[in-house]
Amino acid sequence: MNKTLNDTKYNQTKMKLTKLLYVKDECQYTLLVSILSKKNINECYFWTCELYISGYIKDLWKFIFEIYYTFYNIKSPALLDFINKYYNKWNKKKNILHVLNIIKKLFHSKFCFTVFNHIFTQPTLKSLKGRKPKCISKYKNISKNDSRILLSIYRKRYGDVYHYLSLCDSIRDTKELIEEYINKSLGSNNEDLIPPQNILFSNLLKELFRENGKQNENVKKNAQEKKKLTKQNLNDILKYHTIYKNPRLTLLNRKYNISDKIGCFVLDNINHNKKHDILNNWMYYAYRYSRYWNRIFKKFKINLDTKNKYLEIIDDNTTNFDDFHNCYNIEGDEQSLEIKNKSCVKIKNTSIMQFQKYFMTS
Questions:
Q1: Which residues lie across from 304 on neighbouring strands?
Q2: Domain residue ranges in the chain
Q3: Strand partners, 302
Q4: Ordered DSSP codes for 106-165
Q5: Interior CA angle at 25 toward 19 and 31, to 5°?
Q6: Which DSSP letter does residue 70 get?
Q7: 359 vs 329 pLDDT, higher one
Q8: Dihedral sign (CA 341, 106, 17, 1)
Q9: Mean of the pLDDT values across residues 232-239?
Q10: Closest Cα partner for 21 from 327, 339, 347?
Q11: Which pTM does this prediction carry?
Q12: What's the Cα-to-Cα distance from 111 to each of 36, 104, 254, 301, 360, rounded to whole Å?
């Protein structure tokens, strides 16, 4: 099935770590929470920079487009042009400012949970037997799955629509059929970043809710939102990652805690004890699971014995290990409890509705 946001409750992925030894997917979902909660823009910048600096740039762009189509497409459709504008700028010049300007725009824009709810709650899949309405029976040579899609749209069972879209053999043909049925264009973009089914479904709900007068495009911009980020802003933002420039003090740059509101997502099944083990044996985990740190280990020609959590040196050159240890031994096991708890957060399993309720009451 084609789920987004790294597949809430439907997917398992290999653990990945960031520069500051946060678990990557927890860092990513905490970014989502910080954007939607609209409490602290600096926290949004922090998590964005952490993912970007850690080398997960392609994943970050994918996540940004997923956030847009899942939460913003109905309430803030004009935002897509803004995102594409800065995405194209970034493709020409790889500057993190382009990413941060989009995060800022998301932070100040209106969103809703309509698409999110229909994608991530179980479809009803009620029987579609019986006489078809004339508006659907006129389509004679369509597949059974396409017929189910049109009937589900007709009966406003949008979760079922998404389910059947995920089973399509040719999403392009299905898209043209739906466009003919609703007499609206469902233009799609960035299909190389997220599944085209998700874009089609999001655009379909946007058009359906537009017809019902539930869409708000004219939103007044406040003065803070209008300002574009500058190089000086970037220096202020990056200070959270460089206050302690000595690599041995790297973890002191941990400014924010992982959110405990992300329990509706599948989170690599990392238990609380293992998170502490990541800090106690940080070199082992950083070598295996962090792009950022793996490059540094290879620079010092340090190899890993994966069976014993032991770092061995290529060609027995202990000087390389001593040099690495002197420069980068961040001594994760000796960090303060406050620093450890930034990533060692207990996350309880929650439902999609509980996740949504948090933003309605906060």
A1: 311
A2: 1-110+219-362, 116-211
A3: 313
A4: HHHS---SHHHHHHHSPP------SPPPHHHHT--S--HHHHHHHHHHHTT-HHHHHHHH
A5: 85
A6: I
A7: 359
A8: positive
A9: 78
A10: 339
A11: 0.89
A12: 8, 14, 29, 48, 12
What confidence category does residue 192 fall into, taking pLDDT thresholds of 50, 70 and 90?
Answer: confident
Q: What is the 3-state secondary structure (H, E, C) of 164-220?
A: HHCCCCCHHHHHHHHHHHHCCCCCCCCCCCCCHHHHHHHHHHHHHHHHCCCCCCCCC
Determine the Cα–Cα distance for residues 210 and 88; give it in Å rounded to an integer.
28
- Write out the DSSP string of 239-308: HHHHSS-SGGGGGGG--SPPPS--TTS--TT--HHHHHHHHHTHHHHHHHH-HHHHHHHHHTTEEEETTT
Q: How far apart are CA 163 and CA 274, in angstroms?
A: 36
Q: Within 13 Å and on the Cβ side, how many CA atoms surround 294?
A: 12
pLDDT of 272 strictly over 70: no
350-362 pLDDT, tens digit per residue, is 889 999 999 986 6
Q: CA angle 304-307-311, nearest 5°?
A: 25
Give CA–CA dist 359/30, Å, rounded: 13
Distance CA 298, CA 226 (A): 44
pLDDT tens, position by position, 257-269: 999 999 998 776 6
Residues 62-67 have a mean pLDDT of: 96
Query: Percent of the chain at pLDDT above 70?
Result: 82
**Which of 76-90, 246-260, 298-312 has maximum average pLDDT?**
76-90
Q: How far is CA 125 from CA 116, 122, 186, 242, in A?
A: 18, 9, 24, 52
* Cβ neighbours for 197, distance < 8 A, ≥ 6 positions apart: 2, 162, 165, 166, 168, 171
Alpha-carbon distance of 344 to 59, in angstroms, equals 23
